[in-house]
Design goal:
The complex is a heterodimer of chains A (156) and B (838). Chain A is an alpha+beta fold and 156 residues long. Chain A contains five helices and seven strands; from the N terminus they run ββαβββαααββα. Chain B is mainly α and 838 residues long. The N terminus of chain B is likely disordered. The chains are: A alpha+beta (156), B mainly alpha (838). Chains A and B meet through strand 2, strand 3, helix 2, helix 3 and helix 4 of A and helix 2, helix 5, helix 7, helix 9 and helix 11 of B. Chain A: GO terms for molecular function: clathrin adaptor activity. Chain A: It comes from Bos taurus.
Chain lengths: 156, 838
């Protein structure tokens, strides 16, 4: 995966994860163009489109668009599954997640994404493990110091 | 507070999954629709409390910043315990107080305030004020709260505002011993720093430290950041650390280390040497995450180096075994998606198998059974199963698979085409398009389904269906397919019309069963989508009609009818005008077996052509056609030519230079050169079709005066050629005619227009020309193209003395146009009866 963008129906960016090095200006340009392109799609159209030399896979969940850019040899259908898995993780974590959750807890959304994907590839296919890792990180955050944590096993 | 339907429209409404329950209206009209059917077990109290507080107002329930301030969470819990709707009003009072106490906003407060801003300017103001605070805080140092400041900055950055002054703060936070700081610091690094910034290298040391200290969460953060924004230098520096982590006991760290290695190899391919050896061992892991990462790593290694590819072929049996276990015996529920065992892992393994089996008989054979198993055992009711199936098909088609397996794969794609999910249809069409060349007959079986897909409302699907349909046309199905495609052309969206039209014309050209069918097809395309056809379609049709002698009458009748109906489609008008001009006599005869009898009067024909000439819709080129056609009719049709003469006189003062020139010359033909008119306007000979050479030849050819007429093709050189012709006529003493200098080079520029995969045919041999015979002297030209050098045309001028006496002082002068190069003349003889050859 080259990048993932989350944006609202009004085109406001809610999350951006880039797995390729691009300048800020380029990122903004790409974001703007892609958001326009995806928002212009009618509801009955398929979830894939070709844009520049990339394949774009997008899906709308309520008021939020999840949009991934993959390369030519990547499987579009499994990317849809990746998107769905991420939404399920968010849902499990926030409990019936809605866009507001992602707005006000954007850093959490990033943390969850970083436990699911790494360098643009899937790192963990078990929902349970991802959520456990986040929980334990949250606990670690709540405790004041890190000493004495070396023995804390992270499970899986 | 009833649910107000109008409030549902406003911002961030429903939860992302599932069906909505009735909504509560909040004072700020921000609605939270609960989606999942009461999965309240999964909802943490503090989250709920937070969300409810959110609706009531910011910070009221002691802004629950989950970033670590715990004082709020107690409040939230008690809040929840005694929750009533009345409390919403109270919470707002608390909010204002809380704000006055802290000088800078908490993260959620800031977000709330920004969202509350009514205009862009207001938002900018809020943000600028806050950024000033943040900058001050960074400068003065506020170790307890700097993570919060950075978080705010990151939010502002996502809105599009500059945040570069936070870069150093990221580094500081990463270096801090507190986990909260590190978490936000690393996030900041991933968002604000990239390899273009000079500052990014400074992280290297922090990352190195974090990788080697034992806390897994921290190692995880470091690896994640490294794989997201690690530059080549960083990767080189930290490769040994990552390599060590591959051997760490904790699976959590190992799975991340493996994927970080993937990133490193992408950045610095030389590091493959370090990361190749551990792969074999890692492949024995039971942990799905590590296994997945390892397969990805091996894929990356193999794609970059043929040596690695060779090396890893030996793991094919093991991969086969792993995949077989997954498919046949399944795995634990936590990895399953809609009944498919870990589709992510399956897809990745299939992809690696594809790379390993490509062009390698032995590996391919090892996989054959497994692929068939996966193809038949995967549940296809949901997308997850179809994703695996799709990857299987891609793999089957790419390796050296058995024929039966390939047919199975194509059939799976055919089934996909019938799937109700349009995404599945999309991938099926895309894949079939790639396969249509190599497995043509297998794909042919699904032709009816493909044609169905033409009518998809989604443009990207119908475009693919069109491409595929065109690729499937062959000599046996051309009639049926053309029928379907014509139907599609009539109603397809405008951006597909050009492709459809040219596709039909091309298919017709390649597979036309009869000439008449061919002409009919082109005619229909021109009528339906005339404005979308390519420029050479006109020339092609003219060529075609010209060559089908038996169909002249038929063509001219049909074209006349079509023209009489509609004079707006330019290509059609052009062809019709040409045809009427050439075969007008056949039109008036009125008898044609193949079409309905049409009684046409001479006046009607002339009137029609004049209409074309005068119409606003006609392009200048079209008018040129019409004018020339009228001129030709002056010899074809009987009776006086006053009407035509009149038209020519009128157009002699036309604004358009081209038309004016033509009209003037035609006028000259009427007046001064009436005796030559018939000869000049004779029926055209068939232009030699040397493939792409057609237009080039016609353009360049200068005909010998006595024999042929000027070809009225729509080129600018037309008028000048005619002029030259008349110049030659003016000087009857000049008798050394130069031969037509045919453009010898294959018209490369035209090849792409016709898109025919044919090599240009060598030009047809040119017959000898007798160019002069008077007073006992005969001049003959013969043309030879030496086979070795097709660009060379050897012209032999043979002068024969047929008189009884001697011919003396025979001087042969050859005038050639500049396009020819004259290699040289050789030899001459004067004696009677002898042939002098040059």
């Amino acid at each position: 995966m080259q990048f993932m963008l989350l944006f609202s129906r009004q085109g406001k960016l809610r999350l951006q994860k880039w797995y390729v090095p691009l300048s800020d200006k380029e990122k903004k340009k790409i974001t703007r163009e892609l958001v326009q392109t995806v928002l212009a799609r009618k509801p009955k159209m398929c979830s894939f489109l070709e844009w520049r030399d990339l394949k774009i896979v997008y899906k709308r969940y309520a008021s939020l668009y999840f949009c991934c850019a993959i390369e030519d040899q990547d499987n579009e259908l499994i990317t849809l599954e990746i998107i769905h898995r991420y939404v399920e993780l968010l849902d499990k974590y926030f409990g019936s997640v809605c866009e507001l959750d992602i707005i006000f807890n954007f850093e959490k959304a990033y943390f969850i994404l970083d436990e699911f994907l790494l360098g643009g590839e899937v790192q963990e296919t078990s929902k349970k493990n991802v959520l456990k890792a986040i929980e334990q990180a949250d606990l670690l955050q709540e405790s004041k110091h890190l000493e004495g944590q070396t023995t804390l096993r992270w499970g899986k | 507070m009833d649910s107000n339907p109008s409030s549902q429209k406003l911002s961030s409404e429903g939860a992302l999954l599932g069906s909505p329950r009735p909504v509560r209206q909040s004072r700020r009209l921000e609605v939270v629709k609960k989606i999942l059917p009461l999965n309240s077990k999964s909802q943490r109290p503090e989250v709920r409390g937070f969300k409810i507080a959110l609706q009531g107002g910011p910070g009221g329930a002691g802004s629950h910043n989950r970033g670590g301030e715990t004082e709020g969470s107690d409040q939230a819990r008690t809040f929840l315990g005694a929750w009533t709707r009345k409390r919403w009003g109270e919470s707002r009072g608390v909010e204002t107080e809380a704000r006055m106490v802290a000088s800078s906003l908490k993260l959620q407060d800031l977000i709330q305030e920004i969202r509350g801003a009514k205009t862009q300017a207001q938002e900018r103001e809020v943000i600028q004020k806050e950024c000033a605070h943040i900058r001050a805080s960074f400068r003065d140092g506020d170790p307890l709260h700097s993570h919060r400041q950075l978080a705010k900055l990151l939010y502002v950055h996502m809105l599009g505002y500059p945040a570069h002054f936070g870069q150093m703060e990221c580094l500081k936070l990463i270096a801090s011993p507190r986990f909260t700081d590190k978490r936000v610091g690393y996030l900041g690094a991933m968002l604000l720093l990239d390899e273009r910034q000079d500052a990014h290298l400074l992280i290297t040391n922090s990352i190195k430290n974090d990788l080697s200290q034992g806390i897994e969460a921290v190692q995880g953060l470091a690896l994640c950041t490294l794989s997201a924004m690690g530059s080549a230098e960083m990767c080189r520096d930290l490769a040994p650390e990552v390599e060590k982590l591959l051997l760490q006991p904790s699976p959590y760290v190992r799975k991340k280390a493996v994927l970080t290695a993937v990133h490193m190899i992408r950045k610095v391919p030389e590091l493959s040497d370090i990361f190749l050896p551990p792969c074999a061992q890692l492949l024995h892991e039971r942990h799905h995450g590590i296994l997945l990462g390892t397969v990805t790593l091996i894929t990356e290694l193999c794609e970059r180096s043929p040596a690695a590819l060779q090396h890893f072929r030996k793991v094919v049996p093991q991969l086969v075994h792993t995949l077989r276990t997954l498919v046949m015996t399944g795995c634990s529920a936590e990895h399953s998606v809609s009944g498919v065992s870990d589709p992510f892992l399956q897809v990745q393994i299939l992809r690696l198998l594809r790379i390993l089996g490509r062009n390698h008989e032995e590996s391919s054979e090892t996989m054959n059974d497994l692929l068939a198993q996966v193809a038949t055992n995967t549940d296809t009711s949901r997308n997850a199963g179809n994703a695996v199936l799709f990857e299987t098909v891609l793999t089957i088609m790419d390796i050296r698979s058995a024929a039966g397996l390939r047919v199975l794969a194509v059939n799976i794609l055919g089934r996909f085409l019938l799937n109700s999910d349009r995404n599945i249809r999309y991938v099926a069409l895309t894949s079939l398009l790639k396969l249509v060349q190599s497995d043509h007959s297998a794909v042919q079986r699904h032709r009816p389904t493909v044609v169905e897909c033409l009518w998809e409302p989604d443009a990207s699907l119908s475009r693919r269906a069109l491409e595929l349909s065109l690729a499937l046309v062959n000599s046996s199905n051309v009639r049926a397919m053309t029928q379907e495609l014509q139907g599609f052309l009539e109603s397809c969206p405008p951006d597909l019309r050009a492709d459809c039209a040219s596709g039909i014309l091309l298919a017709a050209e390649r597979f036309a069963p009869t000439k008449r069918w061919h002409i009919d097809t082109i005619l229909r395309v021109l009528t339906t989508a005339g404005t979308y056809v390519r420029d050479d379609a006109v020339a092609n049709l003219i060529q075609l009609i010209g060559g089908a002698q038996e169909l002249h009458a038929y063509s001219v009748h049909r074209l006349y009818s079509a023209l009489a109906e509609d004079i707006s489609q330019q290509p059609l008008v052009q062809v019709a005008a040409w045809c009427i001009g050439e075969y007008g006599d056949l039109l008036l005869e009125g008898t044609c077996e193949e079409t309905e009898p049409l009684q046409v009067e001479k006046e009607e024909v002339l009137a029609l052509l004049e209409r074309v000439l005068q119409s606003q819709m006609s392009l200048p080129a079209t008018r040129g056609y019409a004018l020339t056609a009228l001129m030709k009719l002056s010899t074809r049709l009987h009776g006086d030519n006053n009407r035509i003469c009149q038209v020519m006189s009128i157009y002699g003062s036309c604004q358009n230079v081209e038309l004016q020139q033509r009209a003037v010359e035609y006028n000259a033909l009427f007046r001064k050169y009436d005796h030559l008119r018939a000869a000049v306007l004779e029926k055209m000979p068939l232009v030699e079709r040397g493939g792409p050479q057609v237009d080039e030849e016609a353009k360049e050819s200068k005909e010998v005066a006595q024999l042929s007429e000027a070809a009225p093709l729509p080129t600018e050189t037309q008028a000048s050629k005619l002029l030259d012709l008349l110049d030659l006529l003016d000087g009857p003493s000049e008798n050394a005619q130069h031969p037509p200098p045919l453009d010898p080079t294959p018209g490369d520029t035209l090849i792409h227009l016709l898109d025919l995969p044919c090599a240009p045919r060598p030009p047809a041999p040119i017959p000898n020309l007798k160019v002069f015979e008077r007073e006992g002297l005969e001049l003959n030209l013969s043309f030879v193209r030496p086979p070795g050098t097709p660009t060379l045309l050897l012209i032999t001028v043979t002068a024969t003395n047929t008189s009884g006496g001697d011919v003396t002082h025979f001087i042969c002068q050859a005038a050639v146009p500049k396009v020819c190069r004259r290699p040289g003349l050789r030899g001459s003889l004067d004696t009677p009866g002898e042939k002098a050859t040059k």
